[in-house]
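Please, structure for the following, as tokens.
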Amino acid sequence: MVMVKAARPRVVIVGGGFAGIQCAEALASAAVDLTLIDRKNHHLFQPLLYQVATAALSPSQIAAPIREVLRGQRNCRVLMADVTGVDPEQREVRTDGAGVLAYDYLVLATGVSHSYFGNESWQAQAPGLKTLEDALDIRRRFLLCFELAERATDPAERAALLTFVVVGGGPTGVEMAGAMVEIALQTIRDEFRSIDTGQARVILVEAQPRVLAGFDPALSESAKRTLRAMGVDVRTNTRVTAIDGTGVMLTHAPEGDPGALAGGGAPVPSSEFIASRHVIWAAGVAASALGAMTGGATDRAGRVVVEPDLSVAGRKEVFVLGDMASVMDRNGLPVPGMAPGAMQMGRHAGATIARDARALDRGEALPARRAFRYVDKGQLATIGRARAVAHVFGRNVTGLPAWLLWAGVHVVYLIDFRSKVLVLMEWFFSYIFFRRGARLITGDARTAQLET
């Protein structure tokens, strides 16, 4: 590839998540002019977002202003703007509010959004969890259900208000279900007079035969047993077929026959309606539409199938990272859409661009591209207080040791030192006293109600 534009390559990074921030930091000493664009002004630590939704942490404890994170990087400017399009032929990025930006290298790392598998009307009744706004909305709805149940006079309405359905048995769904049942059965048990919060139901729905399908089967089974012991009603081989303001319709396949859900097996699957006023969607994601604008091939989820160096085929100057990218590891397995993979991709793309910039600065030929090598550092999922599952160093770990490992890893990955300290203090307080310090219902209390 021959660079004929600026002496200092112009690098545009779209997205201030794990991949985008790591890529920017890898270019800190490179001879480039870097612009990072994000529609938000903050970097969000998404693995702990569910703790904001379940009132364990406050938003400021898992987020940091992008400008603060990169304040010492003199070759980088940060723009808060919405990217509306990419023109790979003209090498331009179109934005809403910041005009058109030309680039010599483009890095797309905007992540994914919720996917309702063609049932977008479900979104109003079943919010997903990707942003701070999502977390605060879920927290408000969850806590408001108990307040409305306290004053409800109809037993059926009260039961529906105290029934919570989490759709999706991946890490987010498992973590949400575990936290919600702990709040209902422990944290707020003595705070209401007309209702017994211990009667609340938390139902976890998963279409696959097991929760945490990407984990070792033994860990999946351990997580399922733990959830049930905590009081979560775990429904595997179960698919949601309808959601409205009154509840959800579930279709169950017989155990061992998930194919029956597709209509191709016998016996015939059964259906059940669950009356619920609060449904959380943690079942599916779709990649940002920006990826398709690069001209690269995409998979069924809209992720760009990238080259071994993480660039788009035929576009060596365009990189797609994180959840937007379809990448295989050295064993031919998909790189999981988790923080470690995104961070490694960000560092790899940044190092690649830095090597190119160094060669250009010296008037040398561009170096050969190095293939991305994903290093699997294990899998972690928390279920509740002192309960978690982990696969690290080739071994399965459960219970308190796994929970301590999970907590330590997440604190280390928090980007801000202040956040590390505050999160540790909150967790210590919650562990000792079974309390959650962020149980606030925000908004106008006079008009607060659940949307139906």
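The first strand starts at residue 10 and ends at 14. The chain has a mean pLDDT of 90.
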